[in-house]
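Hi U.,

Before I forget, here's the chain from the pilot set. I'm dumping it here mostly so it's searchable later in email.
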Amino acid sequence: MNGYNFLELAIKDILRVINPSKEDWSVRFHIINEVRAVAESIESLRGFNSNLFTKWGDLDISIELQNGSYISSPGRKHKQSLLGDVLRALRKKGGFRRLQFISNARVPILKFESFYNISCDISINNLSGQMKSKMLFWINEIDGRFRDLVLLVEDPFEQPANTARTVSSNQLIKISAAIQATHGILTSPNHNQTSLVSALAGETYMSVTNEDICVNTCNQIRNKKPWC
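Structure:
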């Protein structure tokens, strides 16, 4: 066996170990439904939503606030107040442990651990987190090798001591630019973090329209398969 074949087999073995099983997916969906019983309108974020999580990865949940057909962006104080209400509701419901409200974080979050030993973070209308999740999901849809690379290197959403290792919005824009240069246009060249987040806010139908445009673009790029 040559070195290349040995490396290929080793990588496949590693991916087999770290890839989530059907049970890992089911457990996370169960946790989401448990939280949904307290706050109906929620959306999973980041690793889970973009299919870029390991079997021991944590779960990030955003509680979505809508005013009719309008997706709002509440202020920091409002988010803190709502998370306080969620904290009390989760304590009353039971089934969650190590509940911790981190109000002074850049994005206020409520942390807890499920009885499945999965760490979970809850935020309010985390549009930036949604944008990152969708961008990474679309990139993964274009070329599935991206997912293997992410899982082998590190979970991009973990928060290590060195925050330079986390995926930032600017890095996502650079990844999109690379995709645009090699496969086609994924986002507008004028997009930045603010405009991408804005694309998810406002009228619901506009948010859905923007998503549909990106999904159709990804399908067109994937069908061309320029890397084969």
